[in-house]
Write a structure and sequence with these properties.
Blueprint lengths: L2 H10 L3 H4 L8 E3 L6 E3 H43 L6 H16 L3 E6 L7 H9 L4 E3 L19 E9 L2 E10 L12 H14 L4
Antiparallel strand pairs: 1-2, 3-6, 4-5, 5-6
Helix pairs in contact: 3-4, 3-6
Length: 206
């Protein structure tokens, strides 16, 4: 009889150990972390303990994620509130750059509005073609010089097209020397919210 046949028989006959309860104390299994043997009940207990540890680890990860998420939401709220103060486009631009650095600890920020600084055709096409933020490990087209002397040290970028009156009016780029700060697979929900808020804010000045 093959092991598969035994396993299938036990699955098909769950009452087997009820009818032969004495076997539960007679069956010995290898210890998962050593050479000695243990009873079936001890093995089940070890398995349950390992599952509990795994669940505790997952719960801890979920709690940490929730804390990070709450902290990020608070930062977004603080950032949004700061946008109510400026009454002209220039002041609003400075406020955006300052608060992104101060609240989110983003070391490098470039904000270009097409009305003040018309983009190259490639950058304009890129912004028009991407309704959602784009994260990358390389600069897109000719945007790297926007960061001046810091450009050569930058390793990750987040591109946030800004829209007002139903059209793209500018591009906000967040950058970092840390390659893992922005990466293609990361979620962009909060970046999208920031872009939408800025689009609405600049809607009054563009």
């Amino acid at each position: 009889m093959k092991a598969e046949d035994v396993a299938q028989y036990l699955q098909d006959n769950p009452q087997f150990f009820e009818d032969h309860a004495e076997m539960l104390s007679q069956v010995n299994l290898p210890h998962p972390h050593g050479g000695r043997t243990i009873s079936l009940s001890e093995r089940q207990l070890l398995t349950l303990r390992e599952r509990v540890k795994e669940l505790e680890k997952k719960l801890h990860e979920l709690l940490e994620f929730a804390k990070e998420n709450d902290a990020l939401q608070l930062k977004v709220h603080q950032f949004n509130c700061a946008l109510f103060g400026p009454h002209d486009r220039s002041t609003l631009q400075n406020t955006v750059v300052h608060n992104l650095r101060d609240i989110f600890a983003i070391p490098h920020v470039a904000l270009h509005l097409w009305k003040d600084e018309p983009p190259s055709p490639e950058v304009l096409a890129f912004a028009d073609q991407h309704p959602l933020p784009v994260c990358a490990h390389h600069a897109v087209h000719d945007t790297l010089p926007w960061f001046g002397e810091a450009a050569e040290h930058l390793r990750s970028f987040a591109y946030l097209p800004l829209r007002a009156h139903g059209q793209t009016v500018g591009l906000l780029i967040l950058a970092s020397e840390d390659k893992e700060r922005f990466y293609p697979e990361m979620g962009t929900l909060f970046l999208q919210r920031i872009a939408e808020t800025l689009g609405s804010a600049f809607n009054l000045h563009v």
